[in-house]
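Could you help me review a protein record that somebody else here produced? Do not assume that whoever made the record got everything right. The record follows directly below this note.
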Amino acid sequence: MTISFGSRLVGPDQPPFIIAELSGNHNQDLQRGLAIVDAMAAAGAHAIKLQTYTADTMTLPGAYRIDDPASLWYGRELHELYQEAHTPWEWHQPLFERARQHGMLAFSSPFDETAVDFLETLDVPAYKIASFENTDWPLLRRVAATDKPVIMSTGASTLAEVAEAVQVLREAGCRELVLLKCTSTYPATPLNTNLRTLPHFQQLFPDTLVGLSDHTMGIGASVAAVALGACVIEKHVTLRRADGGVDSAFSLEPEEVAQLVTETERAWQALGQVQYGVQRAEEKSRLYKRSLYVAQDIAAGEVFTKDNLRVVRPGDGLPPRYFDQILGKPARQALQAGTPLTWEAL
């Protein structure tokens, strides 16, 4: 199965599709946002993704304060946090245009139906459904009605919720769907990433592609995900984590994104196919297989022993499996040390 995201093909037969998630790391500075797009393009990311919402479309003032001491946003009031993190809607067009100038795809995660209506005016090539929105059936139906590819994260979701969301999307017209394994902790850890879910996901939903929305530090989990079948990798990005920002702690810097692009493609290339036997590229290397060589000068009629016959490199002599069979047999002719043993010498 292959899906077209604009001009880019995504699927098992294509290199991994790397999405750079800008999120709120623009720090409410459009020029910084544009600089991140430039840096991600230079690093080789294939797409930039925004999040389209306002604080008022997400929650109500005073509705909730984060009280988990382990949270990156401990003590923050939710409406205030979203006000800081949101990408102003008037920034979308310049950010998208900058990405397109670099040959990158640009799209977004809408968080309500009005965001979909807005993104349609910008002719986005695809939509991303965030983990916490995958039970919003009206939003799923509105996105599916655009007839564009959909990428859906599955963090903090039961399998039943994922299956229901897939059914809602399909029934509403979604034909091209990617499911992302995701752990909705910020950051996630390798221990709670559970990448073995990926091939199982593919078995459960064979008419979808699978990928990883990776909130872990570094790129190791993403590289491993590709080895397990991930066609899409999404990572939060920033210029420098030291600059701060709502998601900066678990975001990749440009040099790390470049490594991510390179190493995930290497992992994909290395998958290859089931292969046994000697590959064409290995044919010259067969010279370095071991074989039977004369280790001491031998007179005609002298018998072969463990002293005058050795198993060594290169592979120009008889295969080592004949060693025991040849011991005790006489040499037909005189042989010099360093001579590969052949049947004619027996």
Remarks:
- The mean pLDDT is 97.
- The longest strand covers residues 47-52.
- The chain is about 30% helix and 15% strand.
